[in-house]
Amino acid sequence: MRRIALIVTALIAIGFALFWLTRPKPIPVALKEVATGKVEATLANTRAGTVEACQRTKLSTIIGGRIEYLGVKEGDKVKKGQLLLKLWNDDQQAQAALSQAQVALAAKRVDEACIAAVNAEKEAQRQSDLRSKGFVSTSREEAARTEADVRRANCNTAKADVAQAEAKLKATRVEQGRVALYAPFDGTVAKIVGELGEYSTPSPPGVPTPPAIDLIDDSCLYVKAPMDEVDAPKIVAGQSVRITLDALPGKTLPGKVRRVAPYVSAVEKQARTVDIEVDFDQPEAAGKLLVGYSADVEIILDGRDNTLRIPTAAIQEGGRVLRYDPDSGKLEERRIRAGLANWEFTEVLDGLAAGDRIVTSLDKDGVKAGAKVTPNAP
Q1: Helix or strand or coil: residue 276?
Q2: Is 24 in a helix, a strand, or coil?
Q3: Can you tell me the distance from the alpha carbon of 194 to that of 293, in angstroms, rounded to the nearest whole number?
Q4: DSSP state letters, 62-104
């Protein structure tokens, strides 16, 4: 009997040892305490936005030709009305000189024809006076009156010739404007395509020809960003926005929605989006920004301070979270009623209390309701 008791004791000890060695070990998990704080409902752009200039124009001459004058270089500041570029147009200048001479010639012919008309009218009046006294015949008076009318018509025709010559001169000057580029506003020359003496080609619609001069007004900048079409009805002008730029890491700039596009952009193999334009509230705080910087915008729809909140990443499908029970060391499932939410925090209206701790490391194997866990983070 003693031997049997020893054997039983040994088997019990071995069984206990096996159980102890093979027992499920608690899973180390990261926990987050439920606390109060600020929660905002926000919308973010689907793809990176872009810093744009309030005024930007890509200039090309109306006709092609050889560049004869290039008065600027890339990076130059220019004033409105400043001549930037001109093509060779000696033929147009010669035509303008010819038209100017024709205007002068037509003016002299006006003088000649109108003087003759005045003299003819005076002669017709003398003939009329003489006929009333019986010194000349009626036919002589009528001939003088006809001559006066003809001379007056010649005078009017000569004046019309002057108007025609002036119109032709104006047309030649319009033609000269087709070969020159003037700055439509104060700005900075961003890019020039072409060098002195090279041939410049205009940019007709539908043909991807680069413009001769790209002019931007970088004194006024805004952000243009695409938003998901589903979010478009929630966006209105005047909403507050947070702007972040890759070029300024860690810096957030306040802004406001200026405009929401009245149409949806449909690009092949991309989600349908609606473009919005955002102004900087304090552009000077951003420092020197470059047109073309990538930017992200976060539109603030609503916000609450001192409300119960949890990390959004801790919420599973169906509004479920895993709460840690310190008494049993196990996880229990709780279903919450959520309020405002964004990618970082979600407001908890019901289902949890301040001080509860929930699991945030949901990607670990075995993390589920009823699992034995051990906290490895506050």
Answers
A1: strand
A2: coil
A3: 26
A4: SS-EEEEEE---TT-EE-TT-EEEEE--HHHHHHHHHHHHHHH
CB 309 within 8 A of CB 339: no
In a domain, 117, yes or no: yes
Per-residue pLDDT, 80: 94
Query: Domain count of the chain?
Result: 4
Whether 4 maps to a domain, the answer reads no
Please state, as a whole number, how many other Cβ atoms lie within 10 Å of the Cβ of residue 311.
Answer: 15
217-86-90 Cα angle (round to 5): 165
pLDDT, tens digit (0-9, with 9 covering 90-100), for 36-57: 999 988 899 988 999 999 999 9
Which domain covers residue 67, as residue numbers? 61-88+179-200
CA Rg value for the chain? 44
The DSSP bridge partners found for residue 321 are: 334
C-alpha count within 13 angstroms, C-beta hemisphere, residue 2: 0
Residues of the chain with pLDDT under 50: 20-21, 377-378
- Which H or E element spans position 318? none
